[in-house]
């Protein structure tokens, strides 16, 4: 089975289109690690698409908050404004869909899917030390997560966890052959709001047959996504950061 793994779409329709074009023909099923709304200008388009196309998905903190906007005191001002706007934009059907999204981790075909960490959907896992501490909480030796908007594959053996290098510069792909004796936590990166100083949309592909993960980046119409954010009247920093990739 071949999976397209996406996370943190954040209502960025332009980025999602580029990912789907680039990955066309390379997957049989789609997995999403959450945060399909928030920040971006196309919440209904993205949620409509997810509802029609994504079979395996966990909720992210933005998905949860869109249907519970009283509880977002820990969001920064721009995120809060965007979340209020998003909640007002979403159709009743899409709000209900977000409300019913499962909290991770969930299991799919031998791997786990979660948003933040295996023990807390709001926890940020950014480095090998933090990942290493979470390995004992996994039920499977392969897990996909999101939340940080930082693409990365972490490989853990006994007490040593290391990060495998990801596509950098002009590279668009890094292939990781999964070793049966190691444990892996893979962040496909954010399609809709990358923060690893690489403004290209991030995603991953998994082949369970060849036991291979591919970390990928693709250019997208950033100016189009920024124009949509400005047209919607969303906070300017949300447009600017797409151009910076941070
Ligand atoms: Zn996010």
Q: How does this structure look, described?
A:
The chain has eight helices and twelve strands. The protein is 30% helix and 22% strand. The protein has one domain (2-244): Purple Acid Phosphatase, chain A, domain 2 (4-Layer Sandwich). It has 246 residues and is α/β, with parallel strands linked by helices. Bound molecules: zinc ion (ZN). Zinc ion (ZN) binds at residues 8, 10, 35, 60, 62, 147, 149.
Task: Describe the structure concisely.
The chain has 246 residues and is an alpha/beta fold. The chain has helices at residues 13-23, 43-53, 61-66, 77-89, 92-99, 128-134, 222-231, 236-244; strands at residues 2-6, 29-32, 56-57, 106-108, 111-113, 142-144, 152-157, 160-164, 173-177, 183-187, 201-207, 212-218. The chain binds zinc ion.
Attribute tags:
246 residues; globular; alpha/beta; 6-stranded mixed sheet; 12 strands
Topology:
Blueprint: E1 2-6, H1 13-23, E2 29-32, H2 43-53, E3 56-57, H3 61-66, H4 77-89, H5 92-99, E4 106-108, E5 111-113, H6 128-134, E6 142-144, E7 152-157, E8 160-164, E9 173-177, E10 183-187, E11 201-207, E12 212-218, H7 222-231, H8 236-244
Parallel strand pairs: 1-2, 2-3, 5-6, 6-10
Antiparallel strand pairs: 1-11, 4-5, 7-8, 7-10, 9-12, 11-12
Bound molecules: zinc ion.
Low-confidence stretches: none
Helical content stands at 25-40%
- Count of DSSP E strands? 12
What's the CATH architecture name? 4-Layer Sandwich
Named once each, the bound ligands are: zinc ion
